[in-house]
Amino acid sequence: MSRLFFALCQNDTVRSHFIDLIRQIPGTRCVSPQNLHLTLHFIGETDAQDCLIDRAQTIRCKPFSLMIDHYGYFNRAKVFWAGPKQYPDDLAKLAHNCSISSVACSCRDHDKSFTPHVSLMRKVSDNPELHNFEPFEWTAHSFCLMESESNQAGVQYRMIREFPIQEK
User: For the whole model, what pTM was predicted?
Assistant: First the structure.
């Protein structure tokens, strides 16, 4: 069984913007650069990887861009994050289609509301302030099926397969 999720794939430019934000945050609980991601749909423990790949290959949506122009703090989860104030309908549709694919593969439906964000810091006791926050655009070209692997060094995310964002 693997612990899986769908996420937007980042290019090096987008990742460098998030790394710049992380460098502004004091503390030791920052998310490692290789683990930065925007979750579209969390699947959880499953052995349906092949089914999920097959279903994801059929997902179509219009290409889109989102503006990373906001940051915040999830008090309950103790997570500091960055994301869009508003996001395009096509991002919500992509997340919804990932959810539908997961259910079609008999995966558990976690039924969480979709709040697009990239976690920058975990286990934070209060909301840090970013003094030099510069909004940036993220043009999404692909989404990924990812695996979460726990080891002695912590949690690492590994891309299983990348899928292009395309209309037809």
Answer: 0.92
Mean pLDDT on 41-55: 95
The answer to whether 33 touches 15, Cβ cutoff 8 Å, is yes
Q: Report which DSSP code applies to 86.
A: S
Q: Is 38 helix (H, G, I), strand (E, B) or coil?
A: strand
Place of tokens 């749909």: 41
Assigned token pair, 159: 């891309």
Q: Of 126, 34, 112, which is closest to residue 80 (Cα–Cα)? A: 126
Angle between the N-to-C axes of helices 49-56 and 89-104, in degrees from 0 to 180, rounded to the nearest 10:
140
Q: Give the residue from 64, 50, 67, 57 showing the smallest Cα distance to 93.
A: 64
Average pLDDT estimate for 20-30: 80
Per the DSSP assignment, residues forming a β-bridge with 137 are 67
Confidence of residue 13 (pLDDT cuts 50, 70, 90): very high
**How far is residue 115's CA from residue 67's CA, in Å, rounded to a whole number?**
14
Mean pLDDT, residues 57-78: 92
